[in-house]
Design a protein that fits this description.
Layout: E1 10-14, H1 19-30, E2 35-40, H2 43-56, E3 60-65, H3 74-82, E4 89-92, H4 100-103, H5 107-135, E5 138-143, H6 156-175, E6 181-188, E7 191-192, E8 206-207, H7 208-221, E9 225-228, H8 232-241, H9 244-249
Parallel strand pairs: 1-2, 1-4, 2-3, 4-5, 5-6, 6-9, 7-8
Helix pairs in contact: 1-2, 1-7, 3-5, 5-6
This protein binds NADP nicotinamide-adenine-dinucleotide phosphate.
């Protein structure tokens, strides 16, 4: 259960080694989250994050093996995560950027990216919603992206996975109204993390810490969707409505 200040006490992170997820989890531990369940595919990496969270003050940190592409295992993964008790907050953070120039010429690679980013997010979302509906409370934070608001030539496969993810979680949020469970869809722009290492930062680029701060604020305010940084919301309103021939000519 959330504590008296509405801070979550128990947190599940899917994609625990993500730089953004680590920043969010650390921020929540600093705000007295005590039981942390970390799910990821890189066992050694997840263990390192577990140690980091113990050092930050979490008293009960456990880990669960999780592969977003192994859709058949997701119900069991979520059941394991809930075996220790209620989960107040689940963070759906896993995702891959892919390699657009390779993926648009390789059906298997394109499909693998869609399986991880979209199919995996749908299947974990359904499993999370089922368990949270049963417990009658909880919140799901999902990392979408502005890339999903309008797919760009330079990364339309990744963009399309995020468009699908975003639509699914907006619908899931609607389906959970009245259940005690809510969803926060986070749409960051360019975040300087392992995912974007070596890439030239886009305008309005941000950091994992800033995303974490915005997530905590969004949870406190009861927001349904947030953009990070906030001004991206207005930028995306314009970009979304540009006529396609104009949009195509933009250097993005
Ligand atoms: N960075 C950005 O500019 C940006 C902008 C908007 C949205 N986002 C989204 O934010 C989320 C976190 O990204 P990040 O920037 O923190 O990047 P990151 O540090 O590279 O994290 C990506 C995470 O996804 C995990 N992952 C990838 N494929 C997986 C699979 N098949 N099964 C389980 N886990 C898998 C990675 O695990 P491993 O450690 O095992 O590789 C890692 O934990 C992603 O969904 C991303 O799309 C990022």
């Amino acid at each position: 259960m959330n504590d008296a200040t509405s801070s979550p006490q128990s947190v599940l992170v899917l994609g625990a080694t993500s730089d953004i997820a680590r920043a969010i989890t650390r921020r929540l531990v600093e705000r007295r989250a005590r039981r942390i369940v970390l799910a990821g595919r890189d066992r050694a990496g997840v263990e390192r994050v577990a140690e980091e969270m113990r050092e930050a003050g979490a008293s009960d940190v456990t880990t669960v093996a999780f592969d977003a592409a192994d859709v058949g295992s997701h119900r069991e993964v979520i059941d394991k995560a809930f075996a220790g008790g209620d989960i107040d907050l689940a963070v759906v953070a896993f995702g891959a950027l892919g390699d657009q120039s390779r993926d648009e010429r390789t059906p298997e690679a394109a499909a693998a990216l869609v399986t991880t980013n979209f199919t995996g997010a749908v299947s974990t979302g359904v499993a999370l919603a089922e368990r949270m509906r049963e417990q009658g409370h909880g919140a799901i934070v999902v990392l979408s992206s502005v890339a999903g608001e309008r797919a760009r030539r330079s990364n339309f496969i990744y963009g399309s996975t995020k468009a699908g993810l975003d639509a699914f979680y907006q619908g899931l949020a609607d389906s959970l109204v009245g259940s005690g469970v809510r969803v926060l869809v986070v749409r960051p722009g360019f975040v300087k993390t392992r995912m974007t290492e070596g890439m030239k930062p886009a305008p309005l680029s941000t950091t994992a810490e800033e995303v974490a701060e915005a997530v905590v604020r969004g949870l406190e305010r009861g927001s349904g969707t947030i953009w990070v940084p906030g001004p991206l919301r207005a930028v995306m309103v314009v970009l979304r409505h540009l006529p396609r021939p104009v949009f195509r000519r933009l250097p993005i």
